[in-house]
Amino acid sequence: MAQLVAQKRVLLADLTGDSIRAMSGSMVAYQGQVEFKSAGMGGGGGFRAAIRQRVAGESISLMECTGHGRVHLAYQAQDVTVIGVQNDTVTVESEHVLAVTRDLQLDVQFAGLRGMTTGQGLATTKVSGSGQLAIVSDGPLIGLDVAPGQPVVVDPDAYVAGLGQLQMSLVSGVTWRSLVGEGGGEPFSLRFEGHGRVYIQPAER
Amino acid sequence: MIDGLGTASYDAQSLPADDNVNPYAFSIALAGEWFVSKGAMIAYYGNVDFAGVSQYASRASWVAARFSSPMYADEWVVASGQGKVVVADRGHDVNSYDLEDGNLTIKQANLLGFAPTLELKQSIVPGFVTLIGTGKFLASSNGPVIFVEPPFRADPEALLGWSDCPSPSQHYDHHWMAQSFMAGVQGMLGRESGEERQYDFTGAGTILLQSSEKLVVDAALLRTVESHTNLLDAQSAGALGQRLIARSQQGGR
Amino acid sequence: MTYEQVNSKVVRVPVTQSRPVLARRGSMLGYSGQVSFRPVAGQGQGVRSMVGAALAGESTAMMVTEGDGSVLYGFRGLYTTVVQLTGDSMVVEADRLLVHDAHLQTSIEMVGQGGVRQMARGAVTGQGLFTTRVSGQGTVVLLSHGGTFPIQLNGDTVGVDPQAYVAHTGALQVELKQSLGMRDLIGRGSGEAFQLHVSGHGVVHVQASEEKF
How buried is B20 (Cβ within 10 angstroms: 0-12 exposed, 13-18 middle, 19+ buried)? Predict the structure, then answer.
């Protein structure tokens, strides 16, 4: 079984004859016999996936790394976090997915709520099944718990991932709207309610 | 089940109060008002409202007395209410500073927030603001802040701020200038690498430095520089305009 | 005369009359004492290195720091790695040199075995084959995006993304290779079409990013 280990800003992927999927172009070094080939979007395939890929752009295209050896993966010197998933689902902004082991399913949903508010993030990836997921973030991730009666509001540009039963809505109160037109800042924010956890990074995309 | 993400998670209670969450994010325990740089807020819990400084000043007259810099009013909001507000800046280091009946001048682009017990004024040095009084403020830096004492000469791009010492004067490196004159390149206006001109600090005090930055052109800096051109008469202003156009066409910075 | 790592992004360098240093232009953050800066054109001597310098462009322009004092160096928030040379030599991608002792010998060279054609290809594709060989006894400071990590080689081979390659020491051969089976993928964004194959005995320094500067 391939093993993913995070070392600050580098992900070490040890392959034992199997394969992982990783963000295209994220290989910085490798040792051993490893082949790299384009894996498209990951998740599904066929016509629908092709259309999604077009819409969502190249930033989330994946490559398949197969063979025996160690691959060093990294993206823009960002922090790497490895998550173990067992029969569960994590929702990650697609540009933050660095690598997944082979038994995790990826379902890309382009232009979610966040994408519409910011026009930046175009795709969200649902990662489900069992295996390891490596995500990158600009600075260490900060987890913010959401519980009934304790919603959290986050900057769409700092939002990275979410898990649990979360409902997301836009904050568009009077005070927010009055800020629009003054340029920059957070004209809209994302409000999460329910039961779960939201992960943010200490930087705006 | 999900594991491996449990290392740094918080809720509204366990989030630090007026302290760093990690080196790159700070959690303000809000009970009342704070001035926050627009765009610095990345998350909050609780009942918090955000309003533009000028808008807030129209219903709270003390704001105008505390924020005496119309130049930067558009870049700032007042956060009011009860809760925890997390601020960050491009993944840069974020530090809090406590002023006690003091004053500190800092690069406006790096100032992320300050308590309303402090007063903000524009510095004579373009792009810098001065905080006066007693209270807490937050500033970002590219890498940890380096503190040095005068006499010291600092690259303008690496200068984050200074405290207690007199405002700096400009120092030109004569070796560098001589070389440049001989080579017949690099006019007084335009391309600089940072080594020919420094801010010269003397006297007693503290200077704050960071690793140099890619130039961040904020709207306020543009307005500041533009306001200085009021010193010119129409003819010189026209000549300056032509030189600036030439520079932008060369694609230099 | 030791360089002090002030933090991950800044080094403090003592300068004396007898020990000037060479630094990347625009990297001086501040100084105390009586020091001055003087731009110098290119590195190394001879026609070949001049050609190299010209091809490598202005990004590697250096300056001399002379006098008596203490100087802080850093560049645009990039991470710094301090390396001690003890009579051996180090090959560094040309624009990743932040500062080094002026008495060290430097020469521009190309990594890879392809000679002029390879050189031209490197210049055209921007795959970063211009390197500076620094040798002697003294200190060298490297720049990287997010820091470097070393990969030790004991007779084996490592494939390195040319964008992530920073430097290497030891008896290593470096070849630029177009990855097998990659050709048809170019343009479809697997992103790993060109690789540096480094083999032999030594250490390769790699950064955790594909950002060039």
Answer: middle
